Amino acid sequence: MRAWSLARKCAGRSIGFVPTMGALHEGHASLLREAVSRDHVSVLSIFVNPAQFAPNEDLDKYPRTWDADLALAEAIGVDLVYAPNAATMYPAGFATYVQVERLADGLCSRTRPHFFRGVATVVVKLFNAVLPDHAYFGQKDAQQCAVIRRMARDLDLGVEIVEMPIVRETDGLAMSSRNRYLGPEDRQRALCLHQGLQRAEALLRAGERDAATVKKLVREALSAVEIDYVELVDAETMAPLERVDRPVLLAVAAQVGPARLIDNIKFAPVD
Ligand code: PAF
User: Fold this and answer.
1) With CB atoms counted within 10 Å of each terminal CB, which end of the chain scores lower, N or C?
2) What is the whole-number distance in angstroms between the Cα of residue 138 and the centre of ligand 1?
3) Residue 270 is assigned to a structural domain of this protein
């Protein structure tokens, strides 16, 4: 992988990179299209990263749709698909992990404490192999984007992190590989995540600045699902806020039947 990238870099080509765990959907496709249009060459990685799953999570049943993923990558014009295996990524004796502090403390870390260590570690390893100029991530995983952006700055990785907007189904459900786990009833119930966030956005636009009031409205909208968190945080540092006095991230996570789903909005007050 690195030899391929070095040859392109020496020829003055920029490399756009989209790291994924496969099971590609329209959200991934939007990242791939951006990489293809913005960079000279584009790389998609597919690797279901064991280090970001706890033993009780869905590593084994995480959807693997290899043929469809390759067909999508080809249709979009991706130049190379990099698909290392677990033994290559984590050889026997592997002992080095990347831990991003503070940003990786709240939100998803409360129920998934292992998660960002696994993500940060694999992303550094993938960056070291692919040597990208730009790496494209989706805003749906807003905390992941913030953690990776911080890590890229702190460790001087020389990679620009590009965050792309959330892609939604026509009824508003944020696209996710885990939406495949939802039966028809859970699929319908899952819509309340986006609906709650939309109501909160309307409240924020109308001038509400008290975080507790905004979160209460979202919690009420999520009454039919099992809430993991509803948090209003600083959009860059992920620190919890009481007042909306700077750009914020309003993020939710909930268990909907067999699927743990996340969604969010960003809001910047103009007053
Ligand atoms: O967002 C994902 O699919 C994964 O967390 C990532 C960034 C590919 C790391 O395994």
Assistant:
1) C
2) 10
3) no
Q: Give CA separation, 186 vs 25, 49, 93, 123, 221, in Å.
A: 19, 26, 42, 32, 15
Query: Residue 172: inside a domain, yes or no?
Result: no
Q: What is residue 82's three-state secondary structure?
A: strand
pLDDT higher than 80, residue 182: yes
147 in the same domain as 183: no
Amino acid at position 212, single letter: A
Same domain, 159 and 182: no
pLDDT digits (tens, 9 = 90+) for 150-176: 999 999 999 999 999 999 999 999 999
Q: If we measure between CA atoms, which residue out of 125, 118, 124, 149 comes closest to residue 136?
A: 149
Closest CA to 163 of 182, 144, 139, 192: 139
- The answer to whether the CB of 107 is under 6 A from ligand 1 is no
User: Does the CB atom of residue 21 touch ligand 1 within 6 A?
Assistant: yes
Determine the atom of ligand 1 nearest the C-alpha atom of 21: 3
Residue 271: the pLDDT is 73
Q: What is the pLDDT of residue 104?
A: 80
Question: Which residue puts its alpha carbon closest to atom 1 of ligand 1?
Answer: 20
Domain edge (last residue) among 127, 142, 164: 164
Q: Which domain range does residue 106 map to?
A: 2-164
Whole-number Å distance, alpha carbon 11 to ligand 1 midpoint, is 29
Average of pLDDT values for 22-47?
98
d(C-alpha 229, C-alpha 147), whole Å: 18
CA distance 97 to 206: 44
- Residues 99 and 192 both lie in one domain: no
88 found inside a domain: yes
* CATH code of the domain containing 101: 3.40.50.620
Q: Which residues are catalytic?
A: 28
Q: How many domains does the chain have?
A: 2
Q: Is the CB of 19 under 6 A from ligand 1?
A: yes
